[in-house]
Amino acid sequence: VLLVESTYGNRLHKAPEETQAELVSAVGSTLGRGNVIIPAFAVGRTQAVLYALAELARTGRLPPLRVFIDSPMAEKATLITRRHLERLAPRARELDHWMRGNPRELELRYTHEVEESIALNQIRSGAIIISASGMCDAGRIKHHLRWNLPRSACAVLLTGFQAEGTLGRRLVDGARKVRIFNDDIPVRAQVHTIGGLSAHADRDGLLAWLRGFAHAPARTFVVHGEHETAAGFADEVKSRLGWIRVEAPQRGDVHTIA
Question: Which end of the chain is more exposed for a tag (fewer CB within 10 A), N or C?
Answer without folding.
Answer: C
